[in-house]
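## retry 2 of 3
previous attempt timed out at serialization; input unchanged, resubmitting
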Amino acid sequence: MKRRKFLRLSSLATLPVILQSCDWSSDGTEFPITVHTDIHTGHLIFKSQSFPKEKSPRVNTLIVGGGIAGLSAANYLKGDDFLLCELSDSLGGTSSSVSYNGISFAQGAHYDLAYPSYYGDDVLGMMDDLGIIEFQEWKKSWSFKDKKYIIPHARKNRCFENGKFRSDVLVDGELKERFQYLLGSYKGQMPMPTPLIKEEHRSLNSVTFYDFLNSKLELTPEFKRGLDYHMLDDWGGTSEQVSALSGIHYFTCRPYDAQVVDLFSPPDGNGYFIKKLSSGLPDEQLKTRHLVKSVEKTTKGFSTEIIDVENQIVKEVDSDRVIYAGQKHALKYIMPEQYDFFKSNTYAPWLVVNFIVKNEIPKKGYWQNEMLMEDQTFMGFVDSDMQNAEHPNHRVLTAYYCLSPESRNDLKNVEANREVIVEKTLGYLNQYFESSIESLIEQVFIKVIGHAMPIPKPGYLFNDKNNGRLFENMTFAGVDNARLPLLFEAIDSGIQAAKLLGK
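## retry succeeded, writing output
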């Protein structure tokens, strides 16, 4: 029996199993599949040893990383002498977006929610200045100016499990009511950014969400499965892996039970925020396809080697200051003396599969389609049918997998297994739509994110490495600096990292 047929028949062939090998046979597909990955970075660093070196002009501040955090730091320093470097072809990091024949879609984070007025002023002020949000006096909260991208409440989401649909991942009943009552006392006490959380609640950071709940409720396997889905979806770990504070924050950081909380999801997802953050910054100060190879402390500041991928040269840049907004695991190679601060971080890898299909699926869409399948790494899909799409003849189905950290090394097999990964994912979508959609597919894109989000384990939060940094003129930004992996947190981390250095 061909492995491809075995894949159709066996529920054991989950994505983690598929990724453990690159010898799955496939009959191929009728449509092209493109894989986006930075997995070849190591080869690039080795190859760069033969690149010529070029001295670049000195800058006041070097920003490493062009995601939300790096661009937020750049916005705070707007008008100053800085240089921002990003490895990928475009800005965005895990909030990146792609365009296919004029159709924009997210390959990472894909939404945000309205902000209560008790959230942090620094981020609210920057987003207000950028024309992203406006204050709603009647709700005492900030919502989004581009109303066309707010998802209709009635079509926000639904859950699919065992061939049936329901409105919520957590099954209704007495246990859910007791769970909601238990968390009720924390409503309004879980702001963003998380450094604003009061000291009296910080002990919740020392115990897992599961242990906290199980000491007060008798959790059933079914209810725990729903909790684990939610925790994996936002935090990259199960209820037994993330802290109680993280879990409580997820359910109580906004007034979900008191009012309709606007959900904002443009077709390009959080790529929308990337465009807003970068739109007012000079292009010559934002460098993509520039990989920071090493940072060295000098008597006059810092000396950084940067690989210009397109021109295949190594640029040597001196700077007075550095804001490191890249992923912290890379410090092991870029600046080893700084890595010890972050070596306890644990990251969840993600795989994103975008299906560009003709808009001929008979079922009307929901925006987020939460699917509890036998493969617990599969998180369901987002359907552009509920977004304000500019191309009504097409629909983008964006499927997500949240993998365990142990699967990271297996991501090297994604390219070899791309047809099998697509087939497995397509099988889930066909179950959801109760028909085959294969003939409607025009193109598939797979995005590999090896360090998509830091898992907020017990003890992770409130441990900002800037407080004990080695060098006064080098700060850290990004959600992997003791933050929850959320847009608001990323923006605040960039602002605070820049603030510490001053204008």
